[in-house]
Amino acid sequence: MKPHLLPALFLASLLLAACAGPVPGSVAAETTLPLNRAWVDGRQVQYITTDISDAGMARVAGANFVPRLALAIPAPGRPSIVERVYKFPGKEQISVFQSAPLPTGGANADRSYSPLWRIVMVRWLRPAAVRELRSEEEVLAAEERGELALQITGIVANCPITRSVDGLALKGVR
């Protein structure tokens, strides 16, 4: 090996090791984020919120304000990487997601799942109709019956699901 390459190889190995995770025997770093729940097809999932494209919503959620997330909303007729999340601003219930990874983790086979969600505000029009909705189909059926109104916003949130409908969780989730 050429001696003049040794410093560069040493630096490269240090950088690669830093990306690999904690060094054995070192103090492990940990991040704790608020855990949220949502409905997907009648079953609950757990998720975290890390980033939101709306400043006010980001402040309330304790998330990063990331205006560029709104650029994930496609032009009409273009494929999208965002799913819809139905949010109840009156706090009548937890949110409803379109999809979830299945199974949870690296073997996910649901190609429609994305952790980027376009927020759709759900407002009940008839107080007597208020009840818990547990799937996108239930939300859309209630809209069709005139029980609620949907407002599609330009707000995108990054909310990865950490425990899916299969009950399995990502590594590190308790």
Description:
The protein has 174 residues and is α/β, with parallel strands linked by helices. It has one domain (33-163). Helices cover 18% and strands 26% of the residues. It is built from three helices and nine strands, in the order αβββαββββαββ. It has helices at residues 6-20, 55-61, 136-144; strands at residues 36-40, 43-47, 51-52, 64-65, 83-87, 95-97, 116-124, 148-158, 161-163. The chain has a nine-stranded mixed beta sheet with strand order 4-3-8-7-5-6-1-2-9. The longest helix has 15 residues, at 6-20. It is globular. The N and C termini lie far apart (47 Å).
Task: Provide a short characterization of the protein structure.
The protein has three helices and nine strands, in the order αβββαββββαββ. It is of the alpha/beta class and 174 residues long.
Order of helices and strands: HEEEHEEEEHEE
Shape: globular
Widest β-sheet, arrangement of strands: 4-3-8-7-5-6-1-2-9
Number of strands: 9
